[in-house]
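Our consortium's second objective concerns turning raw sequence data into structural hypotheses that experimental partners can test. To show how far this objective has progressed, the report includes one record in full. It was chosen at random from the queue rather than selected for favorable results. The single chain below, 420 residues long, was entered without modification.
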Amino acid sequence: MKSKLSTLALALLLWSAVTAVAQPGTLYLGRLDPAALATGTMGGVRLERVEHGKLPVLPASFSRASSVYTDEIEWSAAGRDGKIRVVVAEAVSGKWFACADLDGDSKYQIEECGYFVPGKQEDSSDPEVRFSVPSRVGPFRRLPLVLMLPAVGDAGKDAGYPKLTYTSWVYARGAVDIAGQRTLITMGVSLSKGGLVDPRNTRVGLDGNGNGKIDGNGPPLESSVAENEDLVFKVGNRYVTVKSVDPATGDVVVEERSASDYITIDRVIGGTIPNFTFTDFDGREPKLSDFAGKYVLLDFWGTWCGPCLREIPFLKAAYEKLHERGFEIIGIDFEIEDDSPAGLAASLEKARKLVASLGVSWPQATPASTNDLTRRRFRVKGFPTNLLVGPDLTLRSVGANQSLRGENLLSTLEAMVPQK
């Protein structure tokens, strides 16, 4: 009897071990919450001042106002025309408020008005007004609309006019059970397509480390924008992708994938950066491994990126001072205007002339040769992005706290790159 019990215990142990092992193809089910959340993505509109004789009729508690402005905002969930008329005004007390014609009846009810108060919009505390808009979009019955306190324009045709910014889309939040682990999931919702949630073409987030939130910068990768692709995430010891979402019910299906499907280069300090080849502006094809033994700054930039161009003097100063000590830069040019062959050729010529005019002498990778590296492997979404690779081709810095930007760059590098 004891032998049989031992055999049974061993069998159960082996079964547990097997079920704990990743099994590609396994499906996991989850559901989105019925309430959508506002994103930090903003639309914007220039407000026009309302003449005194044309002031709109507002609820009594908001009727005493000066400096009244109005316009329509583009909000694709707002009925057939996708627009909402808004009024922004300064009350006699000096406080600002906003009213929004949420039901499209050309009137403003008390529940359609609110004062600007300190905000809760992601990482910002800027004053805001929040509205809950009736909707029949996807699984949602109401959608959040957030208006930010207008700022007065100071350039061009917007000079002197207040500009209203607002949340232009929403995202869904829910949970999926992945092998017994309740995992937070977030996804962007296409309001213009009736609440479509397309995991292959929207921002997707999965809580890979189990801390109950989506860490945008990882590691591991927990949030990125899918561009006609299956985004693969690492959740515990499993690799998964969001297979489908039913916009009517909010049901989510997540599929387990093999480890080889996870092509993201996680930004883990001390982790090895996989070797890659690029074509430089002179047609040569160097590899990252050619720079082994040196400190290499990977500079993801673009000709269209103002902050990138403002970094060039600091990059030049660091390169000129530390190059002889074993410091190198690889510029990785990323262009957004046109990724067709002709468009990339035109962008390359533009970038080649620009770096020559600025006296940039370090290697530059062409957009065509590093497009996939930037988009799908390093998942770079903000420019400039700088990553410092050590002599052993391990990641040494991701530039936290602006340590690889501006005047901080040289002091950071001087502390790391040894004297000869």
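The partners drew two points from this record. The chain has three domains: 23-36+171-261, 41-131+143-168, 288-416. Residues 1-19 have pLDDT under 50 and may be disordered. Both points have been shared with the crystallography group to help prioritize constructs.
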